[in-house]
Amino acid sequence: MRRTLILLMVVIGVLSSFGSENNYICLNPYIPEDTKLTSAQSEALFNKLKLITTVNSLSGEGLDPRFVISADAQVLENVVTSTYPQKVVVKIEIKMFVGDGLSGILFSSYAGEYRGIGANTDEAIMSAIGKLRPDETGLQVFIKKGCERINKYYEDSANDIFASAKTEMASGNPESAIWLLRTIPMGNKNYKEAQTIMSEYGRRIIDNNNFDLINRARQKWSASPNESGATQVEELLSQVSFPSEKDITEMNKLTKEITARIESLDDKEWQWQVDQEKMRHKEKK
What residues have CB less than 8 Å from 188, skipping those under 6 apart? Predict the structure, then answer.
């Protein structure tokens, strides 16, 4: 039941919580495992990537975690000043990439040079990373180009996505089917079609779940046509969500049947008690 409600939430608008200017694409920050940066420097660069995605409305858990924005840095110059106390001045090159983490497709790249100063090389590198600004013109061009190419990717891949979603749905994997359809970003020419299909799948999921609950309730009642069975039926029917007209008709039919049966049992119980009372009255005479 919880799974079904989550899927329905997806269908009726959970997409509204992601992105805006870049058509709901989400880029996931990533620092290569083979980077030569220290852990502190990697974290600082990672946080810069998170800031860049936030400023450009690309942050979040990602409708499709395959798309990444990665970065690494390389020291180009390392100079020790002749001042007292001595300082270290570095010039680093920060390279960034927007790509498909699954297929390895590169959508856009960026390279910029930044200077930093510190008591030692590590501090100087941290200072240089801190100079990276999310609103830099080069970065904005880089982000825009990456998003445009991702959108183009979805336009070219839409038919394959629809076919894969249909296969997943037919195989009994509704979560996978809806996840695939959700990856098509708003603003893409295939977005509306994806939403329509997703809504159809969501309604089908809800209907199937409700049918199963009503069917199980009827089986419980057939096995125990008494107050205990009625309680179990009530519990199952309370889990029916967003019922169709057909669901409502079946639920009303079962409810009337149960009500009639319980009333009949109550009447028989009352009649039995009356008969018992009459018999005791005759015995006393």
Answer: 23, 151, 154, 155, 158
